[in-house]
Amino acid sequence: MKSDTRTLAIIKPDAVGSGLAGKVLAVLEDAGLSLVAARVMTMSRAQAEAFYEIHSERPFFGDLVDFMTSGPCMPLALEGPDAVPLLRKVIGATDPAEAAPGTVRGLYAEDKSRNAVHGSDSNENAQRELAFFFGEADLLG
Ligand code: IDP
Ligand code: MG
């Protein structure tokens, strides 16, 4: 039996700015992921640089930080059966041209950069990323 685990999603500034936050959340919930905690915030450059530190040598890093700090985003702590791979499946491929139909990115992403949503890619990163946005008291539920 699959056990409930937790992961971190971010509804990115393109989706929040286009009024699509509720629609993105509905796709995540319909896939079997439940809300544990949520925030609405605009990331500082220091926060975005730290969050995406793993990509700091990539050519798109500056554009990624510009984008992620361009407006409000919504970090979400989500829970469900095998939450990390489940979230990755429902958000779809990084490039919406390759994202499966019905995935968040297939439905709502503009391009490979402005792609509507983030999802942790391993249990280890999920723990790090949950702790990046939420304190222990937020995650008691
Ligand atoms: P992921 O979000 O599907 O895990 P990553 O390869 O980890 O994809 O990249 C992190 C984020 O960086 C992407 O979601 C996207 O916003 C941005 N990104 C990735 N590749 C490119 C690119 O080639 N050009 C511009 N932005 C990119
Ligand atoms: Mg990634």
Structure explained in plain terms:
- The chain is α+β, with helices and mostly antiparallel strands.
- It has a single domain, classed as Nucleoside diphosphate kinase-like domain (Alpha-Beta Plaits, 2-Layer Sandwich), CATH 3.30.70.141.
- Helices cover 39% and strands 17% of the residues.
- It is built from 7 helices and 4 strands, in the order βααβααβααβα.
- It has helices at residues 13-17, 21-30, 45-51, 61-68, 83-91, 104-108, 123-133; strands spanning 4-11, 34-38, 74-81, 117-119.
- The chain has a 4-stranded antiparallel sheet with strand order 2-3-1-4, sandwiched between helices.
- The longest helix is centred in the last third of the chain and has 11 residues, at 123-133.
- The mean pLDDT is 97.
- The structure holds inosine-5'-diphosphate and magnesium ion.
- Inosine-5'-diphosphate (IDP) is lined by residues 55, 60, 63-64, 94, 112-113, 115, 118, 121.
Structure keywords:
alpha+beta, 7 helices, 4 strands, 17% strand, binds inosine-5'-diphosphate, 4-stranded antiparallel β-sheet, 141 residues, Alpha-Beta Plaits, binds magnesium ion
